[in-house]
Amino acid sequence: MFREARRQIANAWKYISTDYLHATQIPTFVLEPALNLSRLIHILQEDDFTDSQNFLKDTITLLFVDFVNSASRG
Questions:
Q1: Angle between helices 28-46 and 2-21 (to 10 degrees)
Q2: What pTM did the predictor assign?
Q3: Orientation angle between helical segments 52-60 and 28-46, nearest 10 degrees
Q4: What pLDDT, in 10s, does the model give residues 2-16?
Q5: CA torsion 56→38→5→15, rounded to 10°?
Q6: CA triplet 57, 53, 40: central angle to 5 degrees?
């Protein structure tokens, strides 16, 4: 049952990514905050919180700060 849940989650992320990359009716700048929030929630749910302070800081930096910096350069 656990493997099946993991498989369904992986497939859902594939569908989300595909839909985001091929969005035509809704601009991606509208979809991006929802996608980023769902990514953050997914990562936080998988964290075992053994070193959560550093993990959380690094994760937020990778997801939001570094992403914005690289996107603005392109």
A1: 160
A2: 0.53
A3: 160
A4: 788 888 888 888 888
A5: -140
A6: 50
